[in-house]
Design a protein that fits this description.
The complex is a heterodimer. Chain A is an alpha/beta fold. Chain A is built from 7 helices and 6 strands, in the order αβαββααβαβαβα. In chain A, helix 6 links the parallel strand 5 and strand 6. Chain A is globular, with a radius of gyration of 16 Å. Helix content of chain B is 32%, strand content 17%. Classes of the chains: A alpha/beta, B alpha/beta.
């Protein structure tokens, strides 16, 4: 029993180590959009600007806009105000995200899902968008306060994709800098 | 005959009791019209009235002070509004802290701490709210009114069955006709609340305001909390400010102003003027449906036993903000507002280097948390010692 438990812990540790140590780099230009219409996408826009990255921003981007881009950045998190402002309902938004992910995979693009809204962007309003974006992504950048129940960590481990947890939202600025500079974030 | 005398005595006692009750209630009602004294700090260079921008407001009971803090150096102009909803004390008190502490180094601040002054003259009927609360300061206790979300019925009555917003035609419940934050952009010949909204829009236009920041609070269970709500033209300023706040360790959400919900400051001032319009929300445990006793201690201390219980049930998902035995003290909520205002000023100046606004002396969240609200509110002794003017205009009776 004890032997099995120890082996299990080692196996999980090795698996996690593989995920975090995996090299992941992304290329420009980037198509930046929202997954759930939260305004967090605006903060990620500022982060990309601070890194002087080449990107196109459209919070309602469609698969037709993928052409010419090499990376899709999805900023996950639902907002009823945001959906109302964009005049879309959750079902339409989910269909748009699914089509974008499918289109990006078809084009051979990298997909980065970002969740920087913390605890406020979890729950019944946000989690369907969070799940769809994370399950379609090749890499996750997540503010740790939004992953206290390991919602994103579990998806990353299950799919064996890199997971970059940040303590502060501003730490994500450096993560983006390194992802697009070809250097693995610390 | 004896029975008849007994009835008369009993009737007289009842009548006397009723009169005493009515007198007490009437006195309390009238006391709400006594304005809390404000002590403008050394940064205030002029005090105007809103009716200077819309003369029809004069004598309506809705006219209010506009404090000008002018550096004398060219830069941007920022309007800070508190008391749009007088039942949201952190927004009001934060505006008071700005006018009493801030010194503008470049550009101008305009501060309207009691945007809906009529709402300060009554409480919300049936809500069991305290009429006042006090804050201990280094200069003695300061008292403030906890008013109503709406314009006083004394100044605007009756309510229609349905409130039709001008100019959108949006329909809301009748009481919303007295809600200033559903009345923008207002109209010159409209209801008193619409005239007030129109006057504030006129102020924004006449003074060439670049940035409007409206300070609010909401119930802890409301989904938009500890938030910056931005008109789309103000979204970049808001995004940079939110990042700055996160750098300081303050969690704020960024929310877009809905296109289709009309009458709000951020939507209508953003749509109808050149200014960038934003609204700030903090969580007020005296405001929600889950609250317990309506006592001044909860207003100031922010600890409500019912919210404390609500924070522990249903996997802690009932409330939208962290809530524990420390409560949400007024000082922290005011600190959130001042910190967000400083971050917004910084972001605005970063994006508009030709129109910077630089302010000193304004405490941030950490300063207010450490020193307390009382450390940043002035008093009569301070004003006398520094030769400063005291407002308000009516202090004949102190509760």
């Amino acid at each position: 029993m004890m032997r099995g438990l120890v082996l299990g812990i080692i196996a999980v540790g090795i698996g996690f180590g593989q995920v975090t140590a995996q090299e992941f780099t992304a290329e420009q230009p980037i198509l930046l959009t929202s997954a759930g219409q939260s305004a967090d996408v605006l903060m990620v826009k500022v982060m990309l600007e601070r890194n002087k990255l080449q990107f196109t921003f459209d919070k309602l981007a469609t698969a037709a806009q993928l052409a010419g881009n090499k990376t899709l950045v999805l900023v996950a998190g639902g907002s009823s105000k945001g959906l109302g402002a964009a005049k879309v309902d959750p079902k339409q938004e989910m269909e748009r995200i699914a089509a974008l992910i499918a289109g990006a995979k078809k084009e051979g693009m990298k997909i980065i899902a970002v969740h920087v809204g913390g605890e406020a962007r979890r729950g019944s309003m946000s989690d369907p968008f969070n799940k769809t974006a994370a399950e379609g992504a090749d890499c996750l950048v997540v503010l740790k306060s939004g992953d206290q129940d390991q919602f994103f960590t579990k998806i990353a481990n299950a799919r064996k994709i890199p997971f970059y947890g940040v303590d502060k939202i501003t730490d994500a600025v450096a993560v983006f800098g390194r992802l697009f500079a070809g250097q693995r974030p610390q | 005959m004896r029975g008849s005398t007994g009835h008369r005595v009993f009737g007289a006692v009842l009548l006397l009791g009723a009169l005493c009750g009515a007198w007490t209630a009437a006195r309390e009602f009238r006391l709400m019209r006594v304005e809390e004294p404000l002590y403008p700090g050394p940064g205030v260079t002029a005090v105007r009235t809103l009716s200077e921008y819309a003369p029809r407001l004069c004598g309506s009971g809705l006219d209010t002070e506009v404090y000008v803090l002018d550096s004398g150096r060219p830069g941007g102009t920022v309007l800070v509004m508190g008391g749009t909803h007088p039942n949201e004390p952190a927004g009001f008190v934060a505006a008071v802290v700005v006018l009493e502490c801030a010194q503008v180094r470049q550009g101008r601040l305009l501060v309207v701490p009691r945007a809906n002054k009529s709402g300060f003259s009554c409480t919300d009927p049936g809500e069991g709210m305290p009429a006042r609360f006090a804050v201990e300061t280094e200069h003695g206790a300061r008292w403030f009114r906890l008013g109503s979300r709406f314009t006083n019925w004394v100044h605007q009555w009756p309510d229609p069955l349905v409130y039709v917003h001008f100019p959108s035609g949006q329909r809301l419940s009748g009481a919303e006709t007295r809600n200033l934050n559903r009345a923008f952009p207002g109209r010159r010949h409209g209801s008193p609340t619409e005239r007030l909204a129109h006057a504030l829009v006129q102020l924004v236009r006449a003074e060439g305001v670049d940035l409007v920041v409206d300070l609010h609070e909401s119930a802890p269970e409301y989904p938009v909390n500890n938030a910056v709500i931005a008109h789309e033209r103000a979204s970049e300023v808001a995004a940079i400010a939110t990042l700055r706040l996160q750098e300081e360790g303050l969690s704020f959400n960024l929310e877009p102003s809905p296109y289709t919900f009309h009458g709000l400051t951020h939507r209508e001032i953003g749509d109808h003027t050149e200014a960038l319009a934003l609204l700030l929300e903090t969580a007020n445990p005296m405001q929600g449906r889950l609250r317990g006793e309506g006592v001044p201690e909860v207003v100031v201390g922010g600890l409500d036993r019912c919210y404390l219980r609500a924070a522990t049930i249903r996997n802690k998902t009932v409330l939208r903000v962290p809530y524990d035995a420390g409560g949400l003290p007024l000082a922290e909520r005011v600190g959130r507002h001042t910190a967000a205002l400083l971050a917004l000023l910084g972001a605005f100046s970063e994006l508009h280097p030709d129109r910077p606004v630089e302010v000193s002396g304004l405490p941030d969240y950490h300063a207010l948390r450490e020193r307390g609200l009382g450390g940043y509110l002035r008093g009569e002794s301070y004003s006398e010692a520094h030769g400063l003017t005291t407002t308000p205009l009516h202090t004949e009776e102190t509760p």
